[in-house]
C-alpha cells in the first residue's frame, strides 16, 4: 500500500469515526451514520471504507461497522 | 402659490438628499409647504417634507443620513403663526402648519449667511477638484450670492495646511466650513468617533483623534466623512487626479458578504470613485475601506488578461489565444476521462464569482464532465451553516435581513468580528447598541465590539478555542432549567418529540455552566448572566461567523444556535433570528447555485428522482444520482492517483486551504489543473492552463449576500480579457462536447429561475425594477422574503437536535501548549489577492502573531520581533505583537499574506459533517526566531 493510499484511507477512517462520535441524535447511531454516508459520500468512498473495515477492522469504531452492514 | 399640484408619495425621489432622515410613525400630519399640502409621518422635519414636494430648501449642515444639527443657518423658513425664522432641519412638522420657504426676508438672511461662509473660503472654484460637484458652490448659486461685502482680507483659515496622509483622500482644512457633517458621519453612521471639532468659535476645526494626521488617527477610512463633506475639504485623491466623473453605473461590491451597493462613477472607461448607494438594501449608503477605496486591483499590473498554457508546471507559461487554451484544456480533461473515467475530474466554484458564473461551472461539471465532483470554497467557510440550518429550519440560509438588527434588544455575537470582517453591518450593529441594545460576545478575543467608543459588551464570554458547543449547551441548560423556555412558541412551531429529547439532554447536569467551566474557561456566573439576558431581553438575535463554523463541531454548533433560537422563541419575526455573517460576497449565492457535490441548485439532493429528471430534461443530458467528492476528497484522491484533473474558478486553494503541503502535493499529482483567476495566484504555480478572469467591475450578473439579497452586478467597464467568465466556461463545456449556448447572463438567470422554486420570480428585469430581492422570490413572495420562517419553518416544524459536546482531537500538549486561532483584519480580505494589490497594505503589510504578555514573557518573545510557530503540521515565521486582546494560552493571526504561510501550520482536522477545516484551533508552540530572518 503506498503512502498516498495510506493517507486517503486514514482520512476516510478519521471521517467515519468522527461521524460516529458526533452524530447528534444518539439513538439508532448506525442507521444515522449510514444515512449520512449515503447522502454525502461517493460510492467509491463507501466501497473503500468497506475494504478498510475488512482489512483493518480495529481502525473503525463499532458503530461504523454496524453502519457498514446496511450501507 | 401653487394650489393645484397634489402631493404624490409615489413620486418622491428618495435617491435625492431629502435633508434629514425619515421619521417612523403611524400618525400622519398634513402641512402646507408654499401652499402645497403634504402628509408625512409625525416627526418628519419641515426640510424633508419640503424636499418631498420638490421645494428644496438651501442647506449645508444637513443631509438625510445624519440627524439634524441646525448649525449652518441656511435652511431658515417662515411658519405662519410662529415668530422668527426657525431652521427647517430641526423643526418637526405639525398638523396644519403652513410653511414658506421662499420669501424676501429669507432670501436676505440666507444671502448674509452665505457671505460669511464665502468670506473665509478660497475662491479657487475653477481649479478646485470639486468644481461642479460642490454643495457650497451650489448653495452660493441657490441664494443668489453675487459679492462678498467683507472682502477676503480679514482673519481667515486660508493658509491652513493639507493633510494628505491617507492614501485615498485628502483633508484640506482651508476649504472647511465646520458644518460637522464629517464628524457626525464618523459618529452616527460609522460609529468610530475618530473625528471631533477642536477649538472654539473662530478657531474651531475638524480634528482626527487628537489633532493627528488622518493616517495616524483612529480613522478607519470608511469614507463616510468624505461622502458627507459638502465642499472639497475631504476629497478622494482619485477625483483630484482624474477629475469629476461624467457617468455612473450601479453595481455591487465584491468583498465581504454584506454585499454593499455602489455607484461606480467614471470618466469614459476609467473608474474615478465608488460611491455607496443610499438606496442599497444592504448598506443604505454606507461603505468600508475595501469597497469604497480598494478597487484598484482591477487595473493592477499583476493582472493577467491573456490565456496561458504549458505542458508541465516545470515549463514557462505560453500566452495563447482563447481557442487554443480552451482546446488544450478540453483535450487534457477528455484524455483523463478516457483513461481514468469521469470521476477522475472535477471542479471548484468560487464565491467571488456571480451566481450565473457559478451556475455554469457546476452545470459544466455535472453535464459535460459527467460527474458530481463539484465543490465550492464555501467548503472551507460556511458549509456547516448549510448543513445545520437545513437540519433544524429546513433551508440553508440566514433568517433575517440586515435591517432587522434595528429591532433587536440583545445581540449574541459568536465567533465573528463584524467591525473588521463585515464592517458596514458592524456599524449598523453599533448604532443599535448605542441605542441601548444589550450585547453578548462569545469569542476568545476581545474584539472591537467588546469595548469601543460608546459600546460595551455587558457579557463577554472569552471561551477557549474549540469549546463553542459546550458554551452554547451551557447557555441552553440555564434557560431550560431556570424556566426561561418560550413554551408557547415551541408548542406551536416546533416538533415536540425532538424538543423533548433535546430538553432532556440539555437539562443534564453535565451541560451546566459549572460542570463545563473548566473546559470552556468561562466563569459559570458570567455564563448564567448572559443566558438570562438573552432569554429575557425581548428580541434576541444571534450573529455568527467562521469562529463558529471552522471547527470539528461546526455543524453541531450551528444546530446548537438554532436550538437556542427556537427554545427562546427568537425566530420568525423582525429583530431576532440566526444570522450567518458570510465571509465572501457570494458565499450564499455559490451555495444556492448547486455548488455542493450532493445538491442541485436550490439545495435539492441529486438522488431525488423528480428533481434530477427536471434538470435532465432542461439540460438535455442524463445526470448522476450519487454525490460527488468534496474538495478534501478530491485532493486525497489525487494523491492516490484516481483524481487527475480539476477546474478551479477564482479560488486559491494552495493558500486558503488547510495543510498547504498536502494541497501542494495533491495539485502536483494531477495531470491537468485549470485555474481561472485575475492573477497568477499560489495555485497557478501548479496549473497547466490559466484562464484570465474578470474583476467585479467587468462582470454582468448577480451576487447574493448574507441576508439572501440578490443584487445586480453590472459591467462598469469592458472586459479586460475579451470574454465574460461564463463565456469561457461555456466555451470549455462546448469543447468537451456539451454546448451551453447562452446569449447573456440574464438568460442564465432565467434558467436558474425555471429550475429553482425559491428563485422562480427572479429575473434581471425584476432586479432592475426593485433594486434587489431576497429569496424566496416566487408567486407566494413576488417581491422577496426579508424574514424567513414567519408562520412556519421551511421544513414545517422546527427540528431540535441534541448537540453533545465532543472535544476536538486538536488539543494543547506539552509540546504544543498554545492554541492558535485565525481571523481577518479590516483593511485586508481573505488571502489578500485583491487587497494586497491596493494601498490598503499601508495598514497591514504583513501578518503578525498576537500573543499574550504572559505567554510572550515565558518564551522570551518581544514585541515586533520574529518568532517561529510550530504545529504538528508544519512551521512558519512571523513577527510577534504583544496584545491584551487575547487570553493567555491563545495566539492569533491573520492569513492575508502568502509569505506568512499560516496554512502551513493549520491541520487537516475538519467538521465532522461537512469537512469544513478546523482553522480556528491549532495547537502550536512559539519561540523567538533563530538565525537570519528575511
Fold and architecture overview:
- The complex is a heterodimer of chains A (71) and B (934).
- Chain A has 71 residues and is mainly α.
- Helices cover 76% and strands 0% of the residues of chain A.
- In chain A, α1 (3-22) crosses α3 and α2 packs across α4.
- Chain A is globular, with a radius of gyration of 11 Å.
- In chain B, α8 (322-340) packs across α25 and α13 (468-481) runs antiparallel to α16 (513-520).
- Chain B has 29 helices and 37 strands.
- Chain B has five domains: 9-102, Roll (Ubiquitin-like (UB roll)); 132-299, Alpha-Beta Plaits (2-Layer Sandwich); 317-380 and 588-700 and 713-754, Rossmann fold, CATH 3.40.50.740; 383-580, Dimethylsulfoxide Reductase, domain 2, CATH 3.40.228.10; 818-928, Barwin-like endoglucanases (Beta Barrel).
The structural domain count of chain B equals 5
Strand fraction of chain B: 15-25%
* Most residues in contact: chain pair: A-B, 23 and 34 residues
Strand order of the largest sheet of chain B: 14-13-28-27-26-15-16
- What would you report as the Rg of chain A, rounded to the nearest angstrom? 11 Å
The SSE order of chain A reads HHHH
CATH topology of the largest domain in chain B: Rossmann fold
Q: What is the CATH first-level class name of the largest domain in chain B?
A: Alpha Beta
Overall pLDDT of chain A, averaged?
A: 90
What is the end-to-end distance of chain A?
Answer: 25 Å
Amino acid at each position: 500500500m503506498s503512502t498516498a493510499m495510506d493517507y486517503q484511507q486514514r482520512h476516510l477512517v478519521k471521517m467515519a469515526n468522527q461521524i460516529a462520535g458526533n452524530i447528534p441524535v444518539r439513538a439508532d447511531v448506525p442507521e444515522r451514520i449510514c444515512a449520512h454516508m449515503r447522502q454525502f459520500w461517493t460510492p467509491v468512498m463507501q466501497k473503500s471504507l468497506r475494504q478498510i473495515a475488512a482489512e483493518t477492522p480495529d481502525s473503525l469504531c463499532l458503530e461504523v461497522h454496524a453502519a457498514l452492514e446496511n450501507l | 402659490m401653487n394650489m393645484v399640484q397634489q402631493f404624490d408619495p409615489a413620486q418622491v425621489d428618495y435617491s435625492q438628499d431629502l435633508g434629514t432622515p425619515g421619521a417612523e410613525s403611524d400618525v400622519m400630519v398634513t402641512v402646507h409647504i408654499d401652499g402645497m399640502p403634504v402628509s408625512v409621518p409625525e416627526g418628519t422635519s419641515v426640510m424633508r417634507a419640503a424636499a418631498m414636494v420638490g421645494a428644496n430648501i438651501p442647506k449645508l449642515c444637513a443631509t438625510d443620513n445624519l440627524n439634524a444639527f441646525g448649525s449652518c443657518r441656511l435652511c431658515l423658513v417662515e411658519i405662519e403663526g410662529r415668530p422668527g425664522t426657525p431652521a427647517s432641519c430641526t423643526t418637526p412638522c405639525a398638523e396644519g402648519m403652513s410653511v414658506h420657504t421662499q420669501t424676501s426676508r429669507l432670501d436676505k438672511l440666507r444671502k448674509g449667511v452665505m457671505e460669511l461662509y464665502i468670506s473665509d473660503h478660497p475662491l479657487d472654484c475653477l481649479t478646485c477638484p470639486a468644481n461642479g460637484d460642490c454643495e457650497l458652490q451650489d448653495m452660493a448659486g441657490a441664494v443668489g450670492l453675487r459679492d462678498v461685502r467683507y472682502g477676503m482680507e480679514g482673519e481667515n483659515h486660508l493658509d491652513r495646511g493639507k493633510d494628505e496622509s491617507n492614501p485615498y483622500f485628502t483633508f484640506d482644512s482651508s476649504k472647511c466650513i465646520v458644518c460637522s457633517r464629517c464628524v457626525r458621519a464618523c459618529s452616527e453612521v460609522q460609529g468610530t468617533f475618530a473625528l471631533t471639532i477642536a477649538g472654539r468659535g473662530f478657531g474651531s476645526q475638524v480634528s482626527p483623534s487628537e489633532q493627528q494626521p488622518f493616517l495616524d488617527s483612529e480613522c478607519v477610512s470608511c469614507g463616510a466623512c468624505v461622502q458627507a463633506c459638502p465642499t472639497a475639504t475631504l476629497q478622494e485623491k482619485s477625483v483630484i487626479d482624474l477629475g469629476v466623473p461624467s457617468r455612473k453605473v450601479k453595481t455591487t461590491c465584491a468583498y465581504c458578504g454584506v454585499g454593499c451597493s455602489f455607484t461606480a462613477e467614471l470618466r469614459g472607461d476609467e473608474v474615478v470613485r465608488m460611491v455607496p448607494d443610499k438606496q442599497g438594501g444592504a448598506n443604505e449608503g454606507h461603505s468600508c475601506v475595501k469597497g469604497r477605496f480598494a478597487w484598484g486591483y482591477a487595473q493592477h499590473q499583476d493582472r493577467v488578461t491573456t490565456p496561458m498554457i504549458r505542458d508541465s508546471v516545470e515549463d514557462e507559461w505560453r500566452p495563447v489565444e482563447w481557442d487554443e487554451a480552451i482546446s488544450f484544456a478540453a483535450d487534457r480533461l477528455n484524455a483523463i476521462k478516457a483513461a481514468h473515467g469521469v470521476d477522475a475530474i472535477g471542479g471548484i466554484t468560487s464565491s467571488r464569482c456571480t451566481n450565473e458564473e457559478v451556475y455554469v461551472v457546476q452545470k459544466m461539471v455535472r453535464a459535460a464532465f459527467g460527474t458530481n465532483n463539484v465543490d465550492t470554497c464555501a467548503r472551507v467557510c460556511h458549509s456547516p451553516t448549510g448543513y445545520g440550518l437545513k437540519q433544524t429550519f429546513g433551508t440553508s440560509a440566514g433568517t433575517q435581513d440586515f435591517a432587522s438588527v434595528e429591532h433587536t434588544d440583545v445581540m449574541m455575537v459568536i465567533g465573528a468580528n463584524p467591525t473588521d470582517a463585515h464592517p458596514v453591518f458592524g456599524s449598523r450593529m453599533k448604532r443599535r447598541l448605542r441605542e441601548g441594545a444589550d450585547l453578548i460576545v462569545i469569542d476568545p478575543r476581545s474584539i472591537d465590539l467588546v469595548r469601543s467608543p460608546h459600546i460595551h459588551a455587558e457579557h463577554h464570554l472569552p471561551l477557549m478555542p474549540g469549546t463553542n458547543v459546550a458554551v452554547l449547551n451551557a447557555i441552553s441548560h440555564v434557560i431550560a432549567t431556570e424556566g426561561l423556555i418560550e413554551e408557547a412558541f415551541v408548542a406551536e412551531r416546533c416538533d415536540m418529540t425532538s424538543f423533548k429529547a433535546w430538553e432532556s439532554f440539555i437539562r443534564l447536569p453535565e451541560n451546566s455552566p459549572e460542570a463545563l467551566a473548566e473546559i470552556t474557561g468561562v466563569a459559570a456566573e458570567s455564563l448564567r448572566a448572559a443566558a438570562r439576558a438573552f432569554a429575557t431581553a425581548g428580541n434576541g438575535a444571534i450573529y455568527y461567523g467562521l469562529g463558529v463554523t471552522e471547527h470539528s463541531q461546526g455543524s453541531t454548533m450551528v444546530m446548537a444556535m438554532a436550538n437556542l433560537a427556537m427554545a427562546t422563541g427568537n425566530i420568525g419575526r423582525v429583530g431576532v433570528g440566526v444570522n450567518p455573517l458570510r465571509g465572501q460576497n457570494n458565499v450564499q449565492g455559490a451555495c444556492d447555485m448547486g455548488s455542493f457535490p450532493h445538491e442541485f441548485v436550490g439545495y435539492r439532493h441529486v438522488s431525488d428522482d423528480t428533481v434530477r429528471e427536471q434538470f435532465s430534461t432542461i439540460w438535455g443530458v442524463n445526470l448522476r444520482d450519487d454525490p460527488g467528492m468534496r474538495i478534501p476528497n478530491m485532493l486525497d484522491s489525487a494523491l492516490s492517483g484516481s483524481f487527475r484533473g480539476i477546474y478551479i474558478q477564482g479560488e486559491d486553494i494552495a493558500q486558503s486551504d488547510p495543510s498547504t503541503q498536502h494541497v501542494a502535493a495533491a495539485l502536483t499529482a494531477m495531470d491537468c489543473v485549470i485555474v481561472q483567476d485575475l492573477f497568477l495566484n499560489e495555485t497557478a504555480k501548479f496549473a497547466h492552463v490559466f484562464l484570465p478572469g474578470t474583476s467585479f467591475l467587468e462582470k454582468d450578473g448577480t451576487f447574493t449576500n448574507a441576508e439572501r439579497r440578490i443584487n445586480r452586478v453590472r459591467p462598469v467597464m469592458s472586459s479586460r480579457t475579451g470574454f465574460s467568465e461564463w463565456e469561457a466556461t461555456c466555451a470549455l463545456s462546448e469543447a468537451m462536447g456539451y454546448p451551453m449556448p447562452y446569449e447573456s447572463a440574464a438568460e442564465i438567470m432565467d434558467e436558474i429561475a425555471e429550475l429553482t422554486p425559491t428563485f422562480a420570480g427572479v429575473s434581471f428585469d425584476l432586479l432592475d425594477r426593485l433594486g434587489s430581492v431576497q429569496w424566496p422570490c416566487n408567486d407566494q413572495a413576488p417581491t422577496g422574503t426579508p424574514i424567513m420562517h414567519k408562520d412556519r419553518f421551511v421544513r414545517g416544524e422546527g427540528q431540535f437536535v441534541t448537540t453533545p459536546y465532543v472535544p476536538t482531537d486538536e488539543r494543547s500538549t506539552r509540546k504544543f501548549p498554545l492554541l492558535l486561532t485565525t481571523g481577518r483584519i479590516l483593511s485586508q480580505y481573505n488571502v489578500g489577492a485583491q487587497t494586497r494589490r491596493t494601498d490598503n497594505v499601508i495598514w497591514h503589510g504583513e501578518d503578525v502573531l498576537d500573543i499574550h504578555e504572559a505567554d510572550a514573557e515565558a518564551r522570551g518573545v518581544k514585541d515586533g520581533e520574529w518568532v517561529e510557530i510550530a504545529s504538528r503540521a508544519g512551521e512558519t515565521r512571523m513577527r510577534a505583537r504583544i496584545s491584551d486582546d487575547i487570553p493567555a494560552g491563545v495566539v492569533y493571526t491573520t492569513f492575508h499574506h502568502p509569505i506568512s504561510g499560516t496554512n502551513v501550520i493549520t491541520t487537516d482536522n475538519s467538521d465532522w459533517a461537512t469537512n469544513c477545516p478546523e482553522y480556528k484551533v491549532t495547537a502550536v508552540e512559539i519561540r523567538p526566531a533563530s538565525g537570519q530572518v528575511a
